[in-house]
């Protein structure tokens, strides 16, 4: 007579399948380098660094933001790059990052990767990822702002980074990045702008 599967064992099978798959994020290289310019960072490092950004810069968040939820979003936000890879915001003159094709590929990746989890976790993690992508709630808006800040500082400290690679102008940086940072963290953007503007001759 066949044995009935142990629900707890099946749950752990799914949880570890997801965790093992998430390890692949460490192999996804981003266009952005480390701050010292020594090598390109990977998406796992980027996600960790953003979670730390949220902890350190929590006092810059609006009062209605839950930093715990922001951290959870930031840890999950780039898992889709396991399938899609990094799509730099300045590539193809900024069009590639916002293309419908890229967005559809990321949705398929989210279906697959979060679908590895037990149903309750799959639902809650996917909901956080969707919330981050939509960038409409206070938590998601602040999380998106931090996601834009970190590469800016890496580029500045590494001598230009992807700004040089993609011939980015100040106006492009402000429209693609600055406006999004200012939306969720205006004081952070004021500080960052003061550091970055001289690089562009301002």
UniProtKB/TrEMBL annotation:
One of its GO terms (molecular function) is 5'-deoxynucleotidase activity. Keywords: Hydrolase, Metal-binding. One of its GO terms (cellular component) is cytoplasm. InterPro entries: HD_domain, YfbR/HDDC2. Pfam families: HD_3. SUPFAM superfamilies: HD-domain/PDEase-like (SSF109604). Residues 22-189 form the HD domain. This is Hydrolase.
